[in-house]
Amino acid sequence: MGSGIWVLTLLILHSVFEGIAGQEQELNHRTERISGSAGDVLEDDPVGRLKVFVYELPSKYNKKILQKDPRCLNHMFAAEIYMHWFLLSSPVRTFNPEEADWFYTPVYTTCDLTPSGLPLPFKSPRMMRSAIELISTNWPYWNRTEGADHFFVVPHDFGACFHYQEEKAIERGILHMLKRATLVQTFGQRNHVCLKDGSIIIPPYAPPQKMQTHLIPPDTPRSIFVYFRGLFYDVGNDPEGGYYARGARASVWENFKNNPLFDISTDHPTTYYEDMQRAVFCLCPLGWAPWSPRLVEAVVFGCIPVVIADDIVLPFADAIPWEEIGVFVAEEDVPKLDTILTSIPIEVILRKQRLLANPSMKQAMLFPQPAQPGDAFHQILNGLARKLPHDKNVYLKPGQKILNWTAGPVGDLKPW
Amino acid sequence: MLTTHKSSSCQFLARATTAFLSSFLHSAPPVPLRLALRQNPIPLIAIHEWRADGGVDRREAERGGRAMKQTAPQQPNRQAYTAFRSSPGVLFWPTVHVLCCLLSAAAGFRFSRLLFLLLFSPSPPSSSSLHHRHLLRQPPPAVLPSPPQPHIHLPPPPPAAAASNRVVVGRHGIRVRPWPHPNAAEVARAHEILARVQQEQRRRYGVKDPRPVLVVTPTYARTFQALHLTGLLHSLMLVPHPLTWLVVEAGGVSNETAALLARSRLPVVHLPFHEQMPVRWHDRHRLEARMRLHALRVIREKQLDGIIVFADESNVHRLELFDEVQKVEWIGALSVGILTHSQREGEKGQSPLPIQGPACNASGHLIGWHTFNNLPYAKKAAAFVGDGATVLPMKLEWAGFVMNSRLLWREAEEKPGWVRDLDEVGINGEEIESPLDLLTDASSVEPLGNCGKKVLLWWLRAEARFDSRFPARWVLDPPLEIIVPAKRTPWPEAPPDLPFQVIADDEDHVEVHPSKKTRSSRSKRSTRKKKKREAHVDAQVSDLFNRQEK
């Protein structure tokens, strides 16, 4: 009799679990669960796992700059501004710096724009340095760790190297004052001077409302095989070719301009977003820097990103399994791009599309206002939370100094 | 940009030096030097540093870039004099600069910066060889040279990054494969991928649980039957949902029609209707309505389940139509675009496509019907088939309606009360003009296609003359005995004169009596040339058949 009851209980439990698994399978039929090397962390909630203290800087570091040029809110470097705004009203913010795990300095270094809208990085090192001097004199927390529990958002082309030209950026290297801090940046390339160990790579800002208004019904058949709109040759800065994009974009053009499967051109159509939703593959080649908002657009519109950038590190690489979602093509294999793309097995393509259709994947790439759970802001907080607790050697002994305040180019030492 | 800047200053300096030398030596400037300099087309940039020195204006610099003019050396002379007068110490660096510029001009590539870097900076050989390996690993794709250097470029300046950096900063070659054109097998594979992706999209976002479609088509054997029926057949073969095609044929079942239908792999119900198709359009519309009713009766008898779509042979249907009709509950109405006779040349003003269909108010409820405005065509309306005038549609075409077959069944649960029983319809000479006559209450029709805003099918009637002949099943068996060479194609055996004369004579006959035959069968074409050529061919064929008949 007892054994009969056990068997019955086991049967009931088994059927219950089968039911749950069945429902999960139903979900898997349409989308697939995203789990990166850190686990299924896209849906984690950072609230309660970390505390962030926001320094109160004078408004010349943030508000006044934004007032001077409100275009900063819409360009692809706007992540630094939204990070500040979201932190101010987030539950992870704390007003007690003693209990804070991370310290944030709101300085908008990428908001000095030319008339055509491109950011000039020439004053950014001085601005950053001046902000750090300010926080180190007014609060004791910088000197406690020399910035090891501070994080900074540097969304410029080459991150904290603060230059748009790669050679110059490599020459400058990462700003010396930020050597111990955690950098939240869009630039990521392995074995590159401007990528520090422990940095958090984030997607560039793409306007979520604009993308939302251009959605088309999902049953519109995808009839474009490969889609790309953008420059192939940068005639203004690189007239002979070969420097821009390391020649990869020019190679794409020369090899595939006659290919009907490749819908590539330098146009600026008004139906750019709609066309991406009608394409199976979207090219995301490098430009002057390896990252671009095309990746975000491709993910949001369900088009498989074809990343052509050697050694690139993509956003949230420990949480998102990019090899399973996108296609990576080496720059030297660009002439064989059509062979590569047509020889991908169809099951693999369908699986990638299922992964892209996962709403948590799309949400993780966006900065909606106000912040929503699972969006890029929360993924950054998750990334910061995963780095906790801080190592013991982060805290310096009294009198110990590691950073050299006079290091770096002479021009950086001028006050801002 | 800095290098181009320097080169233009080089050019200017070179010009200055030569002008200076010539003024002293009273000889023409060396011609080879001038030619060498001209080989280097440099984009024109303002030289700011010279402005500080000697007030050389921009125009001078630009002129230096194009052609060497003898008239301009006045100012450079002044420059040279001032330089000459100052102390030798100051002269040293400019001299070196001049020397390098001259050397680079002679050698033909940008020498200065690269050479200095190679000679004076400690360059690790590994990076340059790495870059070479990078290129040489792919011998088949050629490296596209960037102008104006015709040979493979020099290795780039060494990177400051660590030796483990696989990605090198600097100029790279543009890799182009030897045959940058699409491969047919790959294109086929890509299309397979697209087809599979679209199938998956349909499965995920498209219609769930599609109901079968019952297509009702009235037809009869005539010249253009093959044309229209094949078009409809192909459209129906592409419909992804289960389909049954009910073809009602006037004049009984014929071999022509049966042969055409057998080519499709669709389940076809071929129904005979024992009356001949009349010649007058008005009577013809009525007969078609009765043929459709006959099909509806068959659906009722056999209790076929599905959505009834009235697809006329000559109409054009979009595949989205068959997805849209899945939304109908009992009876729905669609917008039909009416393609009447095409506008003649010389008629100006593009009037919008006339549309028959449901009219809705702002909240999406059916309030009326858009119909076709007959007034502009009142005098030009076609009376009988093939008379060359505009064929007009009826007030509301059957093609614009779809209904659930359960409406017709005798016993169906939840059948609405506003539908008349099919047995009572059509008796006592009642004229059924549109499916609305099958209902007692026309307001319960559901508007489809975004309330009639989407046009998913087009109505069209194009017929040959009722007495026009065509070879059985459009196969010439045995082949024609007389073969006449076409006017334009050179025929090797025929003598050059005779056939052309024959054709010219024939054409004269045709031109003088423009027969109705030619115009009706070519009612869609508007170009005169085509009419001439086909008139000729048609005359020949009809001649032949007349002879054969006799």
Key features of this structure:
heterodimer, A: 416 residues, alpha/beta, Rossmann fold, 5-stranded parallel sheet, 15 helices, 10 strands, 10% strand, globular, B: 550 residues, Spore Coat Polysaccharide Biosynthesis Protein SpsA, Chain A, 7-stranded mixed sheet, 5-stranded mixed sheet, 14 strands, 40% helix, elongated
Question: Overview of this structure, please?
Answer:
The complex is a heterodimer of chains A (416) and B (550). Chain A is of the alpha/beta class and 416 residues long. In chain A, 33% of the residues lie in helices and 10% in strands. Chain A has a 5-stranded parallel sheet with strand order 1-2-3-4-5. Chain A has a 5-stranded parallel sheet with strand order 7-6-8-9-10. Chain B has a domain at 208-342 and 352-459: Spore Coat Polysaccharide Biosynthesis Protein SpsA, Chain A (Alpha-Beta Complex). Chain B contains 17 helices and 14 strands. Chain B has helices at 2-25, 31-38, 48-54, 58-66, 74-85, 88-107, 112-120, 125-136, 184-205, 225-237, 255-263, 281-302, 319-324, 449-452, 498-512, 516-521, 528-549; strands at residues 142-144, 174-176, 213-219, 243-250, 268-273, 307-310, 316-317, 331-333, 335-339, 355-360, 366-370, 401-404, 446-447, 455-460. In chain B, helix 11 links the parallel strand 4 and strand 5. In chain B, helix 1 packs across helix 6, helix 10 (225-237) runs parallel beside helix 11 and helix 15 packs across helix 17.
